[in-house]
Amino acid sequence: MESIHRPNSDDSFQLKLEDDTNSIPDHPAAGQRTRYIQNGCTARKKPLEYTAESRQIVVLNGENLSLRSLVAVARIGIPVRIDDGLQLVDKIHASVDLLQRKLDAGHSIYGVTTGFGGSADTTTDQFEDLQTALLQMQLCGVVPERSSLDYEADLATMSMPETWVRAAIVVRLNSLVRGHSAVRLCVLKTLEEILQKNVIPLVPLHGSISASGDLSPLSYIASAISGNPDVQCWTDLKDDRRSLVPSHKALERKNIKPVRLGAKEGLGILNGTAFSAAVAGLALFEANQLASLSQILTAMAVEALNGSTESFDPFIGAVRPHRGQSEVAKNIRKALRGSSLVQEAADKDKRSLRQDRYALRTASQWLGPSLEDLSLAKQQLETELNSTTDNPIFDTQSEHAFHGGNFQATSVTSSTEKTRHALQMIGKLLFAQSSELLDSKMNHGLPPNLAFDEPSLSFTLKGVDISMAAYMAELGFLANTVSSHVQSAEMGNQSVNSMALVSARYTHKAVDIVSLMVSAHLYSLCQALDLRALNEIYLAALRPKFNEITTKYLTGTTNVPDIKGWRDLLWSTFDKKLETTVSQDSSTRFLDTSKALQPILLDNLVACSQIFESKKGNRTPTANMIQDYTNSIADAAREVYIDMRKAYGREPDATPFLGAAAERMYTFVRKGLSIPLHKGLVDHPWEIDQDKTSDNKKLNIGSWISKIHAAVRDGRVAQVAEDCL
C-alpha cells in the first residue's frame, strides 16, 4: 500500500509532502529574527531547497509557493524576491497595458470605473481617487490607542501578529505576480521591499468576512506602502528592538519610496484571500506536526500501558484499506520496534482484559481519517497560495477582462474546518490515553497519579488530569464550524461569505490547545515510562529472592513434588495482585499482596494431600507455615522495592526497555530539555531548598510542562517526532 505519510513518497496523496513538515532552513539572519517566531517553528537542522539556485531565499513566481516556504518567510524571516524572469515580468506589464487599453476604449471595469460592491451602479473617470476612496472605506478596523492603560496587552488581542502579516504579504505578492490583476511591477517591488526591510504594518485582528477577499486587513498593507501617516508599521530600531511608527516615517527610515496607487491597484491588493490563506497555512503547518507527534505519543502510551502490538498488525489495515488508518498503524509499529514493554497477542490473556481499550486499540482507525483530512486541507491551501484571487482579472491572451468571484475564500474555510476537526480528534485521543494512564484501576499496575513516592502523600499528576479535561472541553467548543454562522453583508451584495479568516484564527486557537495537551501528555508519558521501568527492574530483582524463600519453605515443610511449578504459580499470583495494590503505601502494600498467596498455598496443599512435617517428624500447623511464608515474602518484597526505588531515583533511565521512538523522545525530554523524573513531595520547590548555583532546581510540575510546551511550539519536539517516523 502506498504511503500518505512518508516524506519521500512520490504519491501525491500525502500529509507530509517533501516541502511541508521537514525542517525549516538555517539562515544567517535567523538568530537576529527570533522576534518573528510566534506560535511556530524556529530554524532547525535540515536545509529547505526553495529554488535550484539557492537555499537561502524564497523566489515568488505565482506557481510553487509551499506551506513550508511560507512558514520560513513568516516566522524566520527568510528573504523573498520576485522572480525576475522575462516571462513573468512581461505578463505583469501586459496586464497593466491591457487594462489601460480597456480604459482608453471606454470599457466599464468594476472597481476601476465603477463603485464597489452594492455601490457598483456609480461610475467615475477619477481612477486614482477611486482607489484612495476604496482604502478610505476599508480602513475601519479598531486598533489600540497609545493612551490605553493596557496598550501592550491590547496590541496582542486587537492586532495580528507580525508573523501573520508577513505571511499575508507573501501570499498576496505571489498572487499578484501571476499577471492577472493589472498591478504595476513597481508596486509589487515595493511590497517586496517592505518584506526585505522588515517594515510590517499593524493590522487589526477583527473585521474581515473573507468574501470579496480580506478587504479591510489588506487595506492596511496597501496604505502602508502608500505612506498613510495614520497606519502604523513595525520597524527595527538601532538596538534591534521593534517599534511602531507611522508608515510614512517607517518608509523614510528604510529608504523606501511610497507609491501612489493607480487604476485598479488598490482593488488588486485588497480583493484577495491572502490573510485567510496565510493564517490558515501557518496553522495547518503546526497541525501537521501535531498529527505526527500524536502517533509517537500513542506508541509511547502503548508501552507505558503494557499494550499490545496486535492492534497495528498489517492484516487489520489490509482488510479495511483506508490509507490513513494503514499509515498510522505502520508508523506506530515502527515506533514500537525494540520495546520490551509491549505485549504480544498471546500474552494478553494473562491480563484482566484480552485486548487493549479503545484509546490504544483503535488509534489507527481514529487518527487515520484525520490524516486524510489534513492531506486534503493541505492540497486546498497550497492551491490557494498559488492562485489568482482577484476581481476583475485579465487574460492577456484573449485580452478579456473577467468579472467573477475568485475572492470567495470558501476553499480556505473548508481547509481550516477540516484542520480544526482533525485537531479535536487528535486531542480527544490524547485525552482518553491520558485518563487511562493516570487511573491506577486502568493502567496495569502504575501508581495512582503516577506518583513515584507513597501515594497517600503524593498526588503528582492529578492536577494534569483535571487540566486535560479543561483543555478538551475548550477544544471541543473550538471544533464547531464557523461557516454555519455566515451573515449577509454589504447591502445584501455579499449575501454569502466564507468567514475564512475567522475560521483560520480559531484554528490557531485549536493548535494552541492541542499543543498544551501534547505537552502535558508527553510529560505524563515520560513519568509513566520511568515508573514502568522501575517496576520491571523491581520484579527482576525480587524474583530470585521470591524463588529462594518459596523453595526454602516448600522443601523445609512439605513434600510437594514440583517445586518449580509451585514457584511459578505463586509468582504469577503475586505479580497479578501487585497491580491491584498500587494505591497503598509500601508499608501495607506488600503484606496485602503476599496474603493473596495464602489461599493458593492452602488449596493446592490440601488438594495434593500434603502432610506438614518438621525435620524432627513433628506435625506443624499449616496456618503457622503459611503465615511465616507470607511475612517473609512481604518483608523481602518491601525491602527490595524501597532499595530499587532509591537506586532508580538516583539514576533514572527507562531507555533499555523502550522502543525506538519512545527512546528518542524520552531522551530528548530527560536529557535535551533536562526535565527530570518527578519524585513526589520531595520535589516541591520550597524556597529554602532552592540553590541558585545548582543545575537541579525544583520546579512546579506546570513549569516542567511549560518547558516541553516551548519545545513543542518552536518545533524541537516535532523534529524528534519527524526523525522517528
From TrEMBL:
Alphabetical UniProt keywords: Lyase
Segments for region (Disordered): 1-32
Keyword Lyase appears in the UniProt entry: yes
GO BP field: L-phenylalanine catabolic process
Alphabetical list of InterPro entries matching this protein: Aromatic_Lyase (IPR001106), Fumarase/histidase_N (IPR024083), L-Aspartase-like (IPR008948), Phe/His_NH3-lyase_AS (IPR022313), Phe_NH3-lyase (IPR005922), Phe_NH3-lyase_shielding_dom_sf (IPR023144)
An annotated GO cellular component: cytoplasm
Sample GO molecular function, one term: ammonia-lyase activity
PROSITE patterns documented for this protein: PAL_HISTIDASE
Family: Belongs to the PAL/histidase family.
Name of protein: Phenylalanine ammonia-lyase
